[in-house]
Design brief:
366 residues; ATP binding; ATP-binding; 11 helices; D-alanine-D-alanine ligase activity; alpha+beta; Dna Ligase, domain 1; globular; Dala_Dala_lig_C; 14 strands; Rossmann fold; ATP_grasp_subdomain_1
Length: 366
């Protein structure tokens, strides 16, 4: 390590799975939804260099395997991981697992946390154990015969229900059919999901009709803090609005492009002193700490209803989150709290380095 711009200059390996590479191989936009946008790679790369770091781009897990096998990681002080993987139900854990095996310090959560949070059903089991609110649920195994689905009608879950793949992110596999209003719609919805994700279990839970927030978090453990909250707001062109919010009771949510409303979706910053926002922040921080998330990420929250005292339910814990400027919620949350993009990345690195101890900061990793 050296000194640059008055701060520690690190040799950083920037690891990503580039979306354009997979699109060129013939995969669809939905297939590649969770992969790193080219603009995000360039933004992180250029910003790390502006901060004085020496950056090596590692374009995907195959390149990472080759470089680890060749011993090139011995020249890295830190891996900045923005790769969310592509193949397998625990794909987000693959890069952290390799880095852990080779003892390479890296940003964001370890492999165990990544794998646990990737599976929404397992996430909910842990939340239930720790009395952190999340909607009741059932899982339909991938090999479950279709004639057993009607048993769900006696499960105690109240319609409308919502069905989704258990390990997908970025709203993959989500459209208007996912909201199941009555028993007659359940089997077709599950079969439609199975046609797209034949090897995946399917999560079934009550549809939550309240407000939805994404809570941006920095840090780890007791140092974790909320840096901003954004609300998903859906608009219908034909609807009447109050302060820009469409409160139509039939409005869907969580589709790939428009949260199933098939209309305009906006994100707006929220006053962190609002009681519902404060409630969302509390449960988000609780979940963040329980799962051992680190450095930066998001927790998605949806309220059970629009009542003032409604319970905020955890939808998803995101231990690794997009960093595309002017697009991804996490940097938007940071900006709304006066944290620039460069400061966000610098804070992420600082959080990761604290796990390495004072000897690393003094002498480097090699």
């Amino acid at each position: 390590m050296g000194e640059s711009n008055g701060s520690t200059s690190l040799r950083v390996a920037l690891i990503s799975e580039q979306r354009s590479t997979y699109l060129q191989l013939g995969y669809s936009e939905e297939d590649c939804a969770a992969l790193t946008h080219d603009g995000e790679i360039q933004a992180v790369l250029s910003t790390l260099k502006e901060l004085g770091h020496q950056v090596t781009l590692v374009p995907g897990i195959e390149s990472l395997v080759q470089q680890l096998a060749a011993g090139k990681h011995k020249c890295w002080d830190l891996a900045f991981n923005i790769a969310q993987g592509f193949h397998g139900p625990a794909r987000e854990s693959q890069v952290p697992a390799l880095l852990g095996a080779y003892q390479v310090p890296h940003t964001f959560a370890d492999a165990a946390t990544m794998a646990l949070c990737q599976n929404k059903a397992n996430t909910k089991m842990v939340l239930n154990h720790h009395n952190i609110p999340t909607a009741p649920f059932l899982v339909i195994p991938a090999n479950e015969p279709a004639d057993s689905f009607p048993k769900l009608t006696t499960s105690g879950l109240q319609y409308p229900l919502f069905v989704k793949p258990v390990t997908e992110g970025s709203s993959k596999g989500i459209d208007t059919f996912n909201k199941v209003k009555n028993p007659a719609e359940l089997v077709p919805a599950v079969q439609q999901l199975r046609s797209k994700f034949p090897a995946e279990d399917i999560l079934v839970e009550p549809f939550l009709s309240g407000r939805e927030f994404t809570v941006g978090i920095l840090g780890a453990g007791e140092d974790a803090r909320v840096i901003g909250v954004r609300e998903f707001v859906w608009k219908k062109p034909s609807a009447d609005f109050t302060n820009g919010v469409d409160g139509h009771p039939d409005l869907e949510f969580a589709s790939r492009w428009s949260k199933s409303s098939r209309n305009k979706l906006i994100l707006r910053d929220q006053d962190i002193t609002h009681p519902q926002v404060q409630a969302a922040c509390r449960v988000s921080l609780d979940a963040w700490k329980v799962f051992g998330c680190r450095d930066a990420g998001r927790v998605d929250i949806r309220f059970e209803s629009d009542e003032p005292d409604a319970v905020p339910n955890i939808l998803e814990v995101n231990p690794i989150s997009g960093l595309l400027p002017d697009h991804s919620p996490l940097p938007a949350c940071a900006e709304s709290n006066g944290i620039s993009y460069a400061e966000l990345l610098e804070t992420i690195i600082g959080s990761a380095l604290r796990r390495c101890g004072p000897t690393f900061l003094t002498n480097g990793s090699s």
